[in-house]
Every structure is written in structure tokens, then in C-alpha cells.
């Protein structure tokens, strides 16, 4: 008999740092998934804002097949054509002059933080090492990035953490000003906090951070791992604000489901990553680069980006209608197709209780912390799938209320 893995096998063979749902999806097409029993689900989770074009999009499949029959991996002893094409395309679309390719958002943020400190040492000396980030921020799971992230639960229990890291309050410029000094080398910020509850920055906040960095010779680092590559309705979310960073990180939607990350920066800052200062074995992998190039060229078009705004309005309208019936949401917020619904005090910390009910109704969703329901579907999800998925979500919320 052929071996068919079960959910119990996860507990038997895998480390217990995850607690996956009971169903095991085995096939996906567009914004729909099917499990081992052939049951269908509408996907509003998007692999945690990763599957930017849904599942098995023909443009990405074609790029993967074509490159897969040509060249997979070389290492960074050599360069390759897909990596160079991807870097060129990212530079042409952004403020950046240079690109560093890696395999994940955590790696991209690790590179950004190391580069910021290296740049400060090169230009101002070793005493300029302080990094300011924000309470409830999330920047990855390496020891450096969980330390910079503003959620202590992720860094506790792993011994001494890197020093020189300070945390201010998001959207509170005065809290940053109190920590800022000539020893500050960088501010790292999400244009919209993701894991912290889908809280968009105010324009005044990001503009003020830019001014503070300029005043103190510090670098402004935008973590756009979750908000970038169309997710918020522009190619990168900072375009909404008219604020340009010195360093920007990207992953998730960048590869449409294939593991890839990128750090973008200017010529002046990039010079501090001299030969041998940093690296990634799989970074710039030909397969990943080919898929990412296909993804960004498809996403960065008026048709897709304008469609994101229309889909956002439909999701928001349906969430508001659900809330009129059941009164479970205190606030609905977000940008583009990264949408959060904060629970009311009566349903405090119960967003997570919606997920298993939603699965039973045939729709996949997420949370952003215990108190915010998060939706991060495909950027090209059909309207019919939105309406059907929201009807299923409404049934799940009705069950929550009536339990």
C-alpha cells in the first residue's frame, strides 16, 4: 500500500513548533484548494500573504518549468541570467540601485540590519550602532530579527539577545524622538504592521521618521516583506506615503509561493556590503529568480494593481455587512488585499476561534495576533470566489456568535 501522510504524522515526525489545522491540502488552483478527501476550500489566507497569484498560476508554472529544464542552482561563485534579470527589474521599478537576493523575508531583514550597522561603522565609527524599531512589530525569526521585532515572546528563552536595540511606539513620533540620537544607525519600520494587527502607518509618522533619520545620519529601513509587491495596491506600500527609504526588504508575494527574498538599497549604502561581508547559499537561485521575475512582471501592471483596489472594496463591504448582522468587529482596516478586522471587547482574543469554524465551512483565513482576523488572498482572486468565500466566512462567524 502506498503511504498517505496524516495529520497525526506531523506530531510524530515534525518538531512541535507549529500546530497545523487538521486538514491537509493536496491540490490548488487559483483561489481554491482541495484536501486529501477531495473537499474544496476558498483560500483567503494566501500562504500568509505569499501566494500573490493564487495556486499554480500558469505564468508562474511556465516560468518554473522553463527554468527547471535549463538551470537550477550554481552558488554565488557564479552569477546567472535569471538573478540578473530579476535584480534589473527590481531596480527599474524602485528607488534602489542595488539588490541582494536571498531565500526569505527573515534573511532579507537580517541582511538589512547587518548592512545598516556596517554602513554606520564605515561612515561614523563603531559607537553608532543603535537600532530603533516598534512595539508589536515583526521582522523574522532569526535571533537578530526577533530581537529587533517588538514582540518579546518570540525572543524569550533563547539566551542573551543582540544589544543596541530600542523599541518605540508605532505611529507615535514623539516616542521615537525620545530614543533618537547621534548613536542611532537605523530605524526599521513596517509601513503597515502585519503580525502586530494590520495597523497602517499615518503619513505624518513615516514622514517624521524620514526627517529624523536625515537629521541624525541614520538609515530608514522599510520592512515590506508582507506589504510589498502589490499586496497593498501599489508595487510597494511606501508609495502610498511618498516616503523613500534607504533600504527596503521584500519576500512573500515576491515569489508567488516560491521561496525568495530581496533587500534593495542605494549605491552609497550598498558599498558597505563589500566582498565577503555577507552571503546566502541559495540567494539568487536561478529557479527562484525566474519565478519571482515572472511574478513581479505580471503583478506590476495597471490591470492587476487597479483590480486590487476594487477587490479591497468588495471585501470591506462584505465584512461590514457581516458586522451589521453580528457586531463582532470593532474596526475593519488595512490596505489593498491585506485586511484586518479587530474583534470587539465582547469577543476579545477570539479571532483565532473563527479559523477552525471557517475551515469546517470551507474557507481559509488567518489571524494577526489573537484579536484580529486577517485576510490576505490572491491579488487576482475572482469576484465570485470573494463572494462565495465571504458567505462561508459569514456562516463561521454566525456559529461563533451562536455557540
Automatic annotation (TrEMBL):
Its main location: cytoplasm. N(2)-acetyl-L-ornithine binds at residues 141, 280. It catalyses: N(2)-acetyl-L-ornithine + 2-oxoglutarate = N-acetyl-L-glutamate 5-semialdehyde + L-glutamate. The modification N6-(pyridoxal phosphate)lysine is found at residue 252. Keywords: Amino-acid biosynthesis, Aminotransferase, Arginine biosynthesis, Cytoplasm, Pyridoxal phosphate, Transferase. It is an enzyme of class 2 (transferase). Pyridoxal 5'-phosphate binds at residues 138, 223-226, 281. SUPFAM superfamilies: PLP-dependent transferases. Its EC number is 2.6.1.11. Its cofactor is pyridoxal 5'-phosphate. GO terms for molecular function: transaminase activity. Pathway: Amino-acid biosynthesis; L-arginine biosynthesis; N(2)-acetyl-L-ornithine from L-glutamate: step 4/4. InterPro entries: Ac/SucOrn_transaminase_bac, AcOrn/SuccOrn_fam, Aminotrans_3, Aminotrans_3_PPA_site, Class-III_PLP-dep_AT, PyrdxlP-dep_Trfase, PyrdxlP-dep_Trfase_major, PyrdxlP-dep_Trfase_small. Binds 1 pyridoxal phosphate per subunit. The keyword NAD does not apply. Belongs to the class-III pyridoxal-phosphate-dependent aminotransferase family. ArgD subfamily. Homodimer. May also have succinyldiaminopimelate aminotransferase activity, thus carrying out the corresponding step in lysine biosynthesis. NCBIfam families: arg_catab_astC, argD, PRK01278.1, PRK05093.1, PRK12381.1. This is Acetylornithine aminotransferase. It comes from Halomonas dongshanensis.
